[in-house]
Write a structure and sequence with these properties.
Layout lengths: L3 H15 L4 E7 L4 E3 L2 H7 L3 E9 L2 E8 L9 E5 L4 E7 L8 E7 L3 E7 L5 E5 L1 H6 L17 H9 L5 H6 L9 H11 L12 H20 L40 E5 L2 E5 L6
Parallel strand pairs: 2-9
Antiparallel strand pairs: 1-7, 3-4, 4-5, 5-9, 6-8, 7-8, 10-11
The protein binds zinc ion.
Amino acid sequence: MPELPEVETVVRDLRAEVEGRSVVAVPHAASSVFRYPSPEALAAALPGASFAAVRRSGKYIHCVLARDGAAEVESEALIVHLGMTGHLEVCDAAAPERPHTHLRALLDDGRELRFADARRFGRVMLGDPDALRAARLIPALGVEPLGEEFTVQRLDALLRRTTRTVKAALLDQRGVAGLGNIYVDEICHRAGVRPTRRCPRLTRAERARLHAAVVEVQRIAIRNRGSTIDDYRDLWDAKGNHQEELRVYGRGGLPCLACGTVLRRTVVAGRATTYCPVCQR
Ligand SMILES: [Zn+2]
């Protein structure tokens, strides 16, 4: 499943392609991935809007829209969540439609923004982000780990407030937005903290190491354009490169790259989890 680095990679590429472009028609919109409004309503509402900005919010992609040349008002966005197998692309309008394409939006440069999703866990929405949040169509998210507000103190306060395991706390999107199963295991290994640890038993130094690891792991993975474990592909259908750099995720039973000890597999917070019993305490 795409996590923060994969979504950020898509956002950066998409921004370069669609910012300033407008939608002239919606030749195709159908499927259960349209959470709100209906595909028909979205197809009627989107033409005439232009893309003022493309941003990431947790694992959500917000394409902020503007109308009639008016200044960006931030009150309307096309919002996409990639789910498990969702894929955005910008291609020539004449390009053959790939299987499971749910949305095609024709842009004013003759290309199309398309969304395909084989497993349909992805989501497409159009509306005011605040209203969608109030209607619980998109969740209220916690602090952005790459933003200025994600300070050592902020994570320290979050981890001191809960009795859950480190893994469960870091996966909770209401605490820190965008972290998922792959990178939380990587973060815990980098910080030298077992994901099974209960938050109240962490030392201040360990909480600080976790903060540094969150930032470093996400930045490095973005630099590597994310990880392709199963289906993730970028806007150009290319795989990420970070799967080659993963230190623990998916490596249970293999030697730790730092110390050579066999990595242990377990289940924490309902998720497959891998850690090194020597490097992580
Ligand atoms: Zn180790």
